[in-house]
Amino acid sequence: MNAEKTTYHLHLESQHGRPEHLAPTAEAWAAAAKRYPQLAAQVRVTCGTDGDIRDKALETADFTIDSTPPRERLRERAPRLKWIQTTGAGLDPILPLDWLPPGMILTNNRGAHGHKAEDSITLALLALHMRLPALMEQQRSGAWREILTAPIAGGTAVVIGFGDLGQAAGRAARKLGLHVIAVTRTGNAAPPADEAYAAEAIDTVLPRADFLVIAAPLLPGTHQLINRARLDRLRPSAALVNIGRAAIVDYTALREKLERGELAGALLDVFEEEPLPPQSPWWTTPNVIVLPHVSCDTPGYIDRLFDFWFENFGRFLRGEPLVNAVDPKVGY
Amino acid sequence: MNAEKTTYHLHLESQHGRPEHLAPTAEAWAAAAKRYPQLAAQVRVTCGTDGDIRDKALETADFTIDSTPPRERLRERAPRLKWIQTTGAGLDPILPLDWLPPGMILTNNRGAHGHKAEDSITLALLALHMRLPALMEQQRSGAWREILTAPIAGGTAVVIGFGDLGQAAGRAARKLGLHVIAVTRTGNAAPPADEAYAAEAIDTVLPRADFLVIAAPLLPGTHQLINRARLDRLRPSAALVNIGRAAIVDYTALREKLERGELAGALLDVFEEEPLPPQSPWWTTPNVIVLPHVSCDTPGYIDRLFDFWFENFGRFLRGEPLVNAVDPKVGY
Fold first, then answer.
1. ipTM at complex level
2. Apex B161 CA angle, B158 and B162, nearest 5
3. Is B126 in Cβ contact with A123 (below 8 Å)?
4. Fewer CB within 10 Å: N-end or C-end of chain A?
5. A19: which chain B residues are within 8 Å (Cβ-Cβ)?
6. Topology annotation, domain A8-112+299-317
7. Domain B8-112+298-317 falls in which CATH fold?
8. Closest Cα in chain A, distance from residue B153 (Å)
9. With an 8 Å Cβ cutoff, are B139 and A290 in contact?
10. How is domain B114-290 classified at the CATH fold level?
C-alpha cells in the first residue's frame, strides 16, 4: 500500500573557528529529526568539518547546509546538488554568485534575526543616547558624576538597509519615539520608515542623524559606503550602531573620530576580523560598546535553522518555491 | 484703571551637597521669570543656601521652594507661609508629615520624571536581560566570548509602586513585550498593568518575576519591603532595577546574592549614601550597573520645576486647587 518514497542525501558542513552556535552538527540534526520525523525519514545525512569528507559527499548530495560551499566547477563535482542552505543571512564570503550553476537554489537564513536585532538596537540607541559607556567608565573608577540626558523621543535614526535587520532597527527606533529615515538600494522602504532615500542621496540625510544604524548586507554597493567623508557629515552628537558588516564603514576613520570626540559613541557588533584580536584598539576606544557578534543571534539558533530547513524541504517535496531563495543578480 | 496687585514673597532655598541640577537658584528663577513675566511681576524673591537667611526670610514668606523646610514650630516661625514646593518627588527626608501646619499646602515634583524614567527602565531591562555588564566586563579584558540571549518578549516584570515612576516602568516593560504585574498599596493599578496586587500579596508574585522594578516612594510601608527573605523568593535568573529609594531593598542581602550569582544582575540608581563613596563595594559588584541618580532627571530639570511652580501660582491666584498637593496622611 505504501508508495516507495525517495530518499535524499543532505550533507552538513561545519567550519572550525566559526561560532559553535552556527554549526549544523549531527547532534542538532538528530534533535531536529525528532521534531520532523516523517520528513527526516526521507533524508540520509552526512556530516563533515573543514571539508574532510565534502568532495566525496557532494558526489551524491542532493542538498547541503554549508555557508561556504566549494565554488569551482561545482556542477561537475556535485552533479545531483539541487539546493544549498547557508547558516547566516549575509552571503558576503561567497559573493559574487557567478559560480552558482543554473537551476541550483541558494537559500540564506534571513528572517531569523529580527526579534533579537530589535532588542539589540533598542538597547544600543538608549545606551548611546544616555551615555552608558561613559557612566560605566565612571563606575569602573568609582566616580559619581551626574550625566543628565533628555528623553530620547523626538530624535532621528537613519537606517542603512531596510531588510529584516533594517526593519527591526526601524521598529526599535519608532518604539522609542524616533523619526526613521531608511536608506535603501531602490529608494523605497517598507514600514516603519517615515522617509526613504536611495543610497545616492545618503549625503543629504547623514547630517540629520542622531543615530546612524548600519543594517545592510555587504555588497559591492555597500562596501565602504560610510567612508570618511560621510562620517564627517554626521553631527558630533550623533552615534553609530553597526549590526551589519564591518566593511560597510571606514572603521579607521570611525575610530579616529571617536578618539577625538567628534562622535558621541558607537555600538559595534561586527568587525573585519572576528574574533576581534586581543590587541585591537577597539577594546579601549572611548564611548564604544564592543559586542562579540551576538546582536542578532539567540540560543537555539541552529535548531531554528533546521526547523526552517525542514519547512523548506516540505515545500521542495510539494514542488513549491523555497522561502529565502537568493537572487544571484542582487546577492540577497 | 489697573487694580493694585498683591505682591507675594517667595523664598528659594538650596543645599550644598545636593546635585546642582536640583538647586532653585537665582539664575534659574531669573530665566523662568522671563517665561512668565506677568506672574513674576507679582513675586518678590529671596535666595538662600543652607539656611543662611532662611529664618529671616520665613518671617514674611508666602511661599517657599525648599526640599527640607524647617519642621519645628513652623507656623510660629513662618506666620504667612501658605505653600511649600519641594524640588523632588520623594518626600522621605521630611516624613512623617505631622509637622505640616493645618491649611499649609505641600506640593512635590512628581510627574516630572516619567519620560526619562521610561527610557532608563527600558535600557535597564534590556541591558540586564542581554547581560551587558558581563559583555562590557569582557570588553574591558579584551575577551571575545559569545553570550547568547533570547529576545526579551514574553518575560514578566513585577513593578513595586505604580505612581508616575511605576507607570513609566510599566510602559517600558510593555513596549518590550513583557507581562506587567503591579504591586501597590491598595492592590489597584492604572494601565498598563496586566495584573495588580496589594503589598501584602508580594510574596506570591516575586517567584514569577524575570525583572523586579522598584519604583515606590520610601514610606513606613515600603521601608525594607524587599528584605532578604523576599529576595530569596526571586529566581536566580531574575534581575532587579531600583529607581525608587535604596532603603526599600535590603542592599546587604542583595549584594551578597549578586556576589554569589544567585541573581542575574541589577541596575541601581539610588543608594543609602549619595554620592556613593569611593570605597563602596557596589562599584565592583558583579553584573551590576551603578548609575549616579540620573535615571529620572533631565537637563533643564530646575527650569521645568519653575514652569510647574508658575503654573501652580496661576492656579493659586485664581483660587483653584494646586496640582501635586501631597496628602499628609499618605505621604505622597
1. 0.93
2. 90
3. yes
4. N
5. 146
6. Rossmann fold (3.40.50)
7. Rossmann fold (3.40.50)
8. 9
9. yes
10. Rossmann fold (3.40.50)
